[in-house]
């Protein structure tokens, strides 16, 4: 049946075509589906002094998972937060984990740590019952102590530091959210003092005895091949070693890794500059100006739309982590490899390293220190593989820290995309039909949450001229931007208020609730019209949580300033309200960059926006007043919060620009060079 036949068919219908791709695989860790260990000892250990160590393969990247998972253990173990220490992202010590991504820490690891802690608590009760010969029902556990009548014992007095060798019982009851004493409340950020004083060590800070520093020679453009190399001048510098090595990793198969190694960074930098290389460039690469036609042309499946569809374009953007990629690698005499690196997937990096050298994964030990942000950009072990290859060639530990320019050039980007979408409205203001085609951005949040009888939604995989991968919320930002822009156009076409139009076509109560909360806090019904002022809203759902965003903007000539953003967010039972508010507000701040001006500029196989002076990120002057409204649903499981709050920012701002000027901007970023000429502008209603 063709799409035309589908839409002509009486009785309605729904078609959704989702094609799993490399972006989804990165986010989910597909192909690494190992079961979680069932033994309490894999997750938790109680020392003789009563201190508690909790183990998790998740990593800390600034999202404050270290604090929230500490709360999980403290809540169920009935122990003070200060008595609990987390070991995170260490492949030799922690259980296997697919990675810290997809907003998965809270919905997956939070209950797992709670189960392990609850099982340990029950073991303590059993030990006390046996030791004191009393009924279990008479025993209580609180504040790190086990008590029965006038008897009391610390945790270590009962376990004597021995392994907690018992399986976590199936169906173990956990404390209901409305009875939480530690969880659900703000606590002081674990390691917070060390972080703000600079005492905390990140991957960039790792030092090893006899360590060499590496600077890597990258080609001048993507796909260029090394034709000749003269390293004599570089090797004449005292202490310098030049390495040329075939490498697979994330590069083109069989590419050369060329690096200068030296005892200090300055000498390595000097040696890198002294290398004389000749390159054979690749030809025929698209630029950022013609990339969207390229994506449509190279699509694996073509669309034959029935509805009138508007094209929207989504630029590639960079992650810009506070800490660029970095790693230290060290080989032992027995052929084992240890790597310290900032990564979201320590076990994935271990697999990459084992494959690179053809050694068992058990011979590779990856440690992830707390990392200076990732945003989906640190799934792969680029720096780790480089450091390990160079360390093996040099016979010494090697530190490989990327520069900011390397980060903005050779890391993968959020995928660019072309989206074509449209809809039809019945005379009563309800949606009659909906069609949506995403080229390259990805399938996340492809499906509309609004009620529509006939819809066709499809993701089209294409070729990408740039390396691309996961980014905060994946394609949900692109798909929400387009969907909520089209919804606004349909509302205006039907002469219905945008908020009322959404309510008219929305059954999902959780989404209705956040829309109501955001609109009430924002004062949507009483917003004051004025020249150069605009108001917009957007709503959506992704990864089990729900957002609604209201934005106010001011237009002054060609400049657009976001004045105020109100975002209502609901992710089930709130684990830590203060840190959740931080996540929401941080996502809004980050989302403003992608909405207004962030984009990767490229041509002739070169990234032109390869430094922060050429790649605009949000500054203090760009920040609006941000208000978060958190809906606490203690009756629902806790969902993740790291991604979904970003998805409503761009469409709310786009709709506010339309409200102020009458211009519908169908590209992200919206105003990289200021507002387009106001030839089609209208005065505010």
Q: What is the secondary structure topology, with strand pairs?
A:
Elements (H helix, E strand, L loop, with lengths): L2 H6 L4 E5 L4 H7 L15 E3 L5 E5 L8 H13 L6 E5 L16 H28 L7 E3 L2 E4 L2 E4 H5 L32 H6 L14 E6 L7 E6 L1 H4 L5 E7 L7 E8 L2 H10 L1 E5 L10 H7 L12 E5 L11 E6 L5 E5 L4 H12 L6 E4 L14 H13 L3 E4 L2 H7 L6 E9 L5 E9 L14 E7 L15 H18 L4 H7 L4 H14 L10 E10 L2 E12 L2 E12 L6 H20 L5 E2 L2 E2 L17 E7 L17 H13 L5 E2 L17
Parallel strand pairs: 1-20, 3-4, 8-17, 13-27, 15-16, 19-20, 23-26
Antiparallel strand pairs: 2-3, 5-6, 6-7, 8-11, 9-12, 10-11, 13-18, 14-15, 14-17, 18-19, 21-22, 22-23, 24-25
Helix pairs in contact: 3-4, 10-11, 13-17, 16-17
Question: What do you see in this structure?
Answer:
By secondary structure, the chain is an alpha/beta fold. The chain has three domains: 166 residues, Aldehyde Oxidoreductase, domain 4 (2-Layer Sandwich), CATH 3.30.365; 158 residues, Aldehyde Oxidoreductase, domain 4 (2-Layer Sandwich); 264 residues, Aldehyde Oxidoreductase, domain 4 (2-Layer Sandwich), CATH 3.30.365. The protein has 17 helices and 27 strands. The chain has a seven-stranded mixed beta sheet with strand order 10-11-8-17-14-15-16. α3 runs parallel beside α4 and α13 packs parallel to α17. The relative contact order is 0.12.
The number of helical runs is 17
User: What structural class should be given to the helix and strand makeup?
Assistant: alpha/beta
Q: What's the arrangement of strands in the largest beta sheet?
A: 10-11-8-17-14-15-16
Q: What level of helicity do the residues show? A: 25-40%
Distance between the termini: 44 Å
Strands, total number: 27
**Looking at the structure, what is the overall shape?**
flat
β-strand amount: 15-25%
Q: Outline the biggest β-sheet.
A: 7 strands, mixed
CATH H-tier superfamily of the largest domain? Aldehyde oxidase/xanthine dehydrogenase, molybdopterin binding domain
Looking at CATH, which topology of the largest domain would you report? Answer: Aldehyde Oxidoreductase, domain 4
**Total tally of structural domains:** 3
**Name of the top-level CATH class of the largest domain:** Alpha Beta
- What integer value in Å does the Rg equal? 27 Å
| CATH architecture label name of the largest domain | 2-Layer Sandwich
Low-confidence stretches: 1-11, 28-32, 679-685
Compute the average pLDDT.
Answer: 93
């Amino acid at each position: 049946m063709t799409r035309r036949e589908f839409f002509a068919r009486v009785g309605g219908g729904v078609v959704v075509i989702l094609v799993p791709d490399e972006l989804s695989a990165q986010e989910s860790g597909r192909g690494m589906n190992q079961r979680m260990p069932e033994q309490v000892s894999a997750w938790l250990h109680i020392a003789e002094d009563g201190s508690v160590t909790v183990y998790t393969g998740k990593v800390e990247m600034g999202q404050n998972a270290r604090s929230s998972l500490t709360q999980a253990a403290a809540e169920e173990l009935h122990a003070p937060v200060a008595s609990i220490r987390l070991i995170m992202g260490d492949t030799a010590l922690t259980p296997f984990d697919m990675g810290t991504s997809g907003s998965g820490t809270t919905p997956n690891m939070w209950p797992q740590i709670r189960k392990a802690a609850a099982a340990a608590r029950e073991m303590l009760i059993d030990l006390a019952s046996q030791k004191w010969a009393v009924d279990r029902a008479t025993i209580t556990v609180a504040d790190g102590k086990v008590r029965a009548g006038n008897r009391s014992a610390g945790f270590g007095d009962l376990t004597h530091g021995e392994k907690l060798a018992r399986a976590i019982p199936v169906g173990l009851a956990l404390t209901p959210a409305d009875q939480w004493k530690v969880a659900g409340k703000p606590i002081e950020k674990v390691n917070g003092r060390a972080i703000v004083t600079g005492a905390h060590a990140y991957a960039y800070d790792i030092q090893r005895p006899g360590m060499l520093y590496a600077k890597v020679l990258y080609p001048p453009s993507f796909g260029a091949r090394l034709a000749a190399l003269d390293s004599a001048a570089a090797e004449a510098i005292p202490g310098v070693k030049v390495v040329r090595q075939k490498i697979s990793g994330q590069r083109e198969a069989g590419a050369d890794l060329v690096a200068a190694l030296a005892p200090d960074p300055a000498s390595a930098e000097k040696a890198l500059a002294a290398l004389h290389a000749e390159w054979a460039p690749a030809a025929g690469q698209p630029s950022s100006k013609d990339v969207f036609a390229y994506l449509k042309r190279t699509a694996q499946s073509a669309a034959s739309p029935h509805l009138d569809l508007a094209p929207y374009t989504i630029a590639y953007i960079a992650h810009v982590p506070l800490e660029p990629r970095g790693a230290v690698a060290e080989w032992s005499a027995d052929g084992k490899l240890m790597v310290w690196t900032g990564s979201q997937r320590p076990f994935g990096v271990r697999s990459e390293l084992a494959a690179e050298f053809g050694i068992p994964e058990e011979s590779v030990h990856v440690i992830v220190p707390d990392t200076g942000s990732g945003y989906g950009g640190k799934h792969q072990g680029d720096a780790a593989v480089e450091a390990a290859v160079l360390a093996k060639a040099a016979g010494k530990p090697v530190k490989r820290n990327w520069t900011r320019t390397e980060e903005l050039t050779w890391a993968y980007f959020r995928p660019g995309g072309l989206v074509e979408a449209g809809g039809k409205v019945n005379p009563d203001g309800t949606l009659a039909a909906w069609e949506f085609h995403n080229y390259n951005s990805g399938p996340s949040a492809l499906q509309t949450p609004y009620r529509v009888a006939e819809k066709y939604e499809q993701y089209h995989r294409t070729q990408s001229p740039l390396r691309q991968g996961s980014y905060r919320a994946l394609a949900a930002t692109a798909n929400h931007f387009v969907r909520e822009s089209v919804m606004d156009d349909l509302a205006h076409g039907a002469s219905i208020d945008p908020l009322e139009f959404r309510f008219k076509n929305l059954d999902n109560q959780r989404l209705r609730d956040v829309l109501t909360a955001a609109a009430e806090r924002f004062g949507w019904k009483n917003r004051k019209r004025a020249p150069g002022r605009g108001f917009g809203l957007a709503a959506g759902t992704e990864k089990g949580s729900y957002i609604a965003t209201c934005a106010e903007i001011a237009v002054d000539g060609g400049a657009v300033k976001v004045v105020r953003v109100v975002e209502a967010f609901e992710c089930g039972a709130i684990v830590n309200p203060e840190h959740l508010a931080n996540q929401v507000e941080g996502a809004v701040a980050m989302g403003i960059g992608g909405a207004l001006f962030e984009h990767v500029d490229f041509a002739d196989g070169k990234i032109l926006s390869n430094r922060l002076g050429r790649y605009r990120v949000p500054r203090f002057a760009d920040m609006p007043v941000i208000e978060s409204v958190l809906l606490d649903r203690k009756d629902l499981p806790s969902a993740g919060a790291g991604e979904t709050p970003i998805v409503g920012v761009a469409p709310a701002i786009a709709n506010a620009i339309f409200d102020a000027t009458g211009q519908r901007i169908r590209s992200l970023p919206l105003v990289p060079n200021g507002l387009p000429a106001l030839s089609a502008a209208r005065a505010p209603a």
